[in-house]
User: Fold this.
Amino acid sequence: MKKLLLPLIALLMATPALAAQVAGVRLWTAPDHTRLVFDTTAPAEHKVFALKGPDRLVIDLAATDLADGFAIDKSLSDKHLKGLRHAGKPDGSLRVVLDLKRPVRPKTFVLKPNASYGHRLVVDLYPVEATRKPRVAKSTEDIKRARDVVIAIDAGHGGDDPGASGSRFRTKEKHVTLDIAKRLKRHIDAQPGLRGVLTRTGDYYIGLRKRMALARKHRADLFISIHADAFRDKRVRGSSVYVLSRRGASSEAARWLAEKENASDLVGGVTLEDKDPMLASVLLSLSQAATQHSSHSAATQVYKELGRVGKTHGRRVQQARFVVLKSPDIPSLLVETGFISNPTEERNLRDPAHQERLAKAIMQGVKRFFVESPPPGTLLAEKRKKPLRHVIAKGDTLSEIADRYQVSVAMLRRTNAIRSDNLIRVGQVLVIPES
Ligand SMILES: [Zn+2]
Assistant:
């Protein structure tokens, strides 16, 4: 859907050729990129190209000069940027040259005035390694370069906010959630192609919006919040899985569109700030719909796995308006691992063996979701594109091959439509199924 919209976006971003002046330059160093912002008196029509040996980025601003009395600070520098130079050209354009410390992938866009700033030209410099585009795997080396799927694991509550507490041992929810979150991270990290990041690693509080922001910062492909329920009726028990409700999503859309601080964030790879309100709202709801769909698929897999560990509360994935689930472009789910208010479940939730079973089940659900629908550019996506193959050598048997690739003989047979060992021959190519 995004592809169809791109030409439309390009049209809307085309800016008229107005004489402009540069009145300010600001530099922001983020952990993952460098942002240079040029304050301009009119939308800046610009061209950008890179030069090598030494690495430079050239920005030509058409019909532009420096505002009276303004001088570009040539010494602006950070991990990507060595310094800035500029010169007016005979055709009336302004050329700004960024001297770079290393090659970068630039991304530029113009922003309309808002409450705090006027017209701006934003130049983002991303390190080349981190922005490699997904491509078809051609060799095992390509597979090595693909990125891991990132799963943000959020231990609910913490610090001043203990969450619910048990009736028998006064167990605090905040401790249980952190224990399970840490175990979940270990299980996720043990899976090739998956990587977990914790939103909190100790007993301290993080705001709900901050938890979402951390997931965004890590470019998470999935957000999982871990909790333990409580209810006044101590008999109530079982685990449950929640995704954001439709009403929660639409109220969040309104918030995103209304709040200036959100608008400059990228949603599903596009910024909403420079879009007209109608287009911004369409882009946002498209992104939300895709996210809701993925959230539900992932939640369903996790719910199924939790059902193997113990009783589930409710017959299916449930919907609620939890704030932490509101990221418009990061599929998100919340797991209530059990009722801490139920004495038996409180004991279970404190038990390392039970915590381990819960963590493993959640990991299995997450893994199945990503193996079935891997995000582009990830190791899992590359693996899916190019299944492993084995060329049969003299003396090979199906059981040995199955052993070597850690798959079952039955799966190997099914995948390759082989009825018995007698039917394999030297030189035959077998497709190795996903274990
Ligand atoms: Zn909770």
